[in-house]
Amino acid sequence: MAVKLRLKRMGAKQKPFYRIVAADSRYPRDGRDIEVVGTYDAVKNPAVVSLDKDKIMKWLNNGAQPTDTVRSILKDNGIMKEYAESKSKKQTKKEK
């Protein structure tokens, strides 16, 4: 099962609100999801983002691939950098 971290559109017409979810890549965009890991409200200025860092790190460590938009949101919040650092620490431990 290929898991992706992606946006799920919620809200009314002309007022989108997004949930960042872990979902099987075969499911439709607004279909079934496995777990909600954050929210993203692009309508407000500046955009409001709330993330559950522990859940996101768990999914990334288990092999979930973020979409381009989610990757940029995670990068802006420093989670991708932290994930890369934790990944490099694991590799150096394995080499020893």
Question: If you had to describe this structure to a student in words, what would you say it looks like?
Answer:
With 96 residues, this protein is an alpha+beta fold. The protein has one domain: 2-Layer Sandwich (S16 Ribosomal Protein, Chain: A). The protein has helices at 53-61, 68-76, 79-95; strands spanning 3-12, 15-24, 35-41, 48-51, 65-66. Strands 4-3-2-1-5 form a five-stranded mixed sheet. A hairpin with a 6-residue loop joins strand 3 (35-41) and strand 4 (48-51). The protein starts with a strand and ends with a helix. The model has no long low-confidence stretch (mean pLDDT 90).
State Rg: 15 Å
End-to-end gap:
32 Å
CATH architecture: 2-Layer Sandwich
Tally of separate domains:
1
Topology, number of strands: 5
Largest sheet, strands/sense/barrel: 5 strands, mixed
What is the fold-level CATH name, i.e. the topology? Answer: S16 Ribosomal Protein, Chain: A
Task: Note the total helix count.
Answer: 3
Tell the overall outline.
globular
CATH homology group: Ribosomal protein S16
Q: How do the helices and strands follow one another from N- to C-terminus?
A: EEEEHEHH
Notable traits:
S16 Ribosomal Protein, Chain: A, 5-stranded mixed sheet, alpha+beta
In brief, what are we looking at here?
The protein is α+β, with helices and mostly antiparallel strands. Helix content is 36%, strand content 34%. The protein has a 5-stranded mixed sheet.
Write the layout of secondary structure elements.
Elements lengths: L2 E10 L2 E10 L10 E7 L6 E4 L1 H9 L3 E2 L1 H9 L2 H17 L1
Parallel strand pairs: 1-5
Antiparallel strand pairs: 1-2, 2-3, 3-4
